Amino acid sequence: MTAWRSLAAELALWRSAERSATFWCRDDDASRDSLPLERLLDVAGRLALPIALAAIPAALDETLVKVVQQSRFTVVIQHGYAHRNHAPPPERKMELGVHRDLGETLAELARGADVLARSFGSRFMAVLVPPWNRIADPIVARLPDAGFCGLSTLGPRKARCPVTGLTQCNTHVDVIAWRSGRAFIGVDAAVERVVAHLRSRREGGADSDEPTGVLTHHLDMDAAAWEFLVELVARTREGGAVWVDALEAFGGGSAASAYLRPISMKRT
Question: Whose C-alpha in 24, 58, 162, 268 is 20 to 30 A from the C-alpha of 45?
Answer without folding.
Answer: 58
